[in-house]
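Whiteboard transcription, Tuesday session. T.W. wrote the structure tokens on the left side:
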């Protein structure tokens, strides 16, 4: 079974400066551990909402740490400092708009303000990057509907083979011919 490298990049001015506790990082890790059977090496970063720093960390996680999956949390709203989708697009070779569309559609079942969220996803080399909101409650709500497609996407870009916990979440891979 492949070892999976996962980057978690949490964006929060207040959590990175110690004003409040970062709860998003551990929630992303908890959800992914429940979904994935493989051994996982997590590469975690907590930084302020800074466009240039986000770009630098995404490149580090993709190019140097060789993360198969990079999850960002935070910076997806309409506030002036929310620049995660723009930084993600700047580093990606391809954008995958269906992921953001599905996350917003599912989030609308919980809150009418989900339409304000700008989650996105993209590919840089062999890394799949997914932007999630910063609210810990919204992390699982957004990750659950899109995760079934992520392992196959990572297969297609040459990343590690993710094996899922069938009793927790079902994933989709086409039948081999």
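and on the right, the sequence the group agreed on:
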């Amino acid at each position: 079974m492949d070892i999976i490298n996962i980057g978690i990049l949490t964006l929060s001015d207040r959590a990175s400066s110690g004003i409040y506790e970062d709860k998003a990082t551990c929630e992303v890790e908890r959800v992914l551990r429940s979904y994935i059977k493989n051994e996982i090496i997590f590469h975690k970063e907590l930084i302020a909402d800074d466009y240039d720093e986000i770009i630098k960390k995404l490149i580090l996680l993709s190019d140097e740490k060789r993360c198969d999956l990079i999850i960002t949390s935070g910076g997806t709203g309409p506030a002036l400092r929310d620049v995660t989708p723009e930084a993600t697009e700047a580093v990606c070779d391809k954008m995958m708009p269906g992921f953001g569309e599905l996350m917003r559609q599912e989030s609308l079942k919980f809150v009418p303000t989900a339409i304000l969220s700008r989650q996105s996803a993209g590919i840089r080399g062999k890394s799949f990057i997914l932007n999630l909101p910063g609210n810990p409650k919204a992390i699982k709500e957004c990750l659950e509907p899109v995760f079934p497609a992520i392992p196959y996407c990572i297969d297609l870009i040459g990343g590690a083979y993710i094996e899922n916990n069938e009793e927790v979440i079902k994933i989709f891979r086409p039948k081999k011919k």
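Someone added at the bottom: The chain has a mean pLDDT of 96.
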